[in-house]
Design brief:
Blueprint: H1 2-17, H2 31-37, E1 43-54, H3 64-74, E2 82-90, H4 97-109, E3 117-122, E4 129-140, H5 165-174, H6 193-204, E5 208-210, E6 216-218, H7 223-232
Parallel strand pairs: 2-3
Antiparallel strand pairs: 1-4, 2-4, 5-6
């Protein structure tokens, strides 16, 4: 009997020495304290992208290969995430309004219409060179999954590890504008209630009816005429 007591006492001593506390995780940390300092939550960070382009001598427009290279560099940057765009010319080209107008039109046609562009000159650039500086936001997702606590039991009546991790991680990958995770959009979205009301009114007046194929068609006569009208407007036969 004494031997069992000795063994039990030794195990308790080893447990105490190894910080065997039910409140601690497998790293010897209190998960409640750890997650209060490292919440499973997306954060927003800023990145800077520098793109150097080159105008051919005497040309006021970028060559097609340079435009393609610009598109490749901007491919993975969401339009809505861009906060500012700076355009640096060489000191010899800083008064070249044609090249400035060309870049402005090209960037706006590509969809970068958020805010104004910041133009400047740099002595580090050679004649014909131009450098774009994009400041944009990115989502920094939490480090998931985190297996610091037991996957079967927390032993401390706390939330299981990785709770909400997949949802938060996927949300960070899906959002088009990272700023929306900080606050809602402040862009005015027009709501045309008159168009919606007119469609309902036309339906009640019999001007629009559901077609047999699940679509809608104008009822200009019998069903055959309605089908012809639908086909003429591009609807599925």
């Amino acid at each position: 009997m004494k031997s069992y007591v000795v063994i039990a006492g030794g195990l308790l001593a080893m447990c105490a020495l190894s910080a065997c506390d039910p409140r601690m995780d497998m790293h010897g940390e209190d998960p409640r304290e750890f997650y209060s300092q490292h919440p499973i939550k997306n954060t927003i960070d800023n990145r800077v992208k520098l793109i150097k382009l080159h105008f051919a001598k005497g040309e006021e427009r970028l060559s097609p290969p340079e435009i393609d290279r610009l598109g490749d560099n901007l491919h993975n940057i969401s339009l809505l995430s861009v906060e500012s765009i700076g355009v640096n010319f060489s000191t010899s080209d800083k008064k070249n309004t044609e090249r400035k107008s060309h870049l402005t039109r090209m960037l706006r046609n590509m969809g970068y219409t958020k805010g104004e562009y910041i133009y400047d000159s740099s002595a580090d650039l050679k004649s014909g060179e131009v450098e774009l500086k994009l400041v944009y936001a990115v989502v920094v997702s939490p480090d998931c999954p985190d297996w610091r606590t037991s996957p079967t039991s927390t032993h401390s009546n706390t939330t299981q590890a990785n709770f909400g991790c997949a949802h938060e991680f996927n949300l960070g990958r899906m959002v088009a504008d990272p700023h929306d995770l900080v606050h809602g959009t402040d862009r005015e979205i027009p709501i045309d209630t008159a168009t919606a009301a007119k469609a309902v009114q036309s339906y009640h007046e019999g001007k629009i009816s559901g077609g047999g194929n699940g679509g809608s068609s104008l009822t200009g006569g019998n069903s055959a005429e309605g089908s012809d009208a639908g086909s003429a407007t591009g609807s599925s036969p």
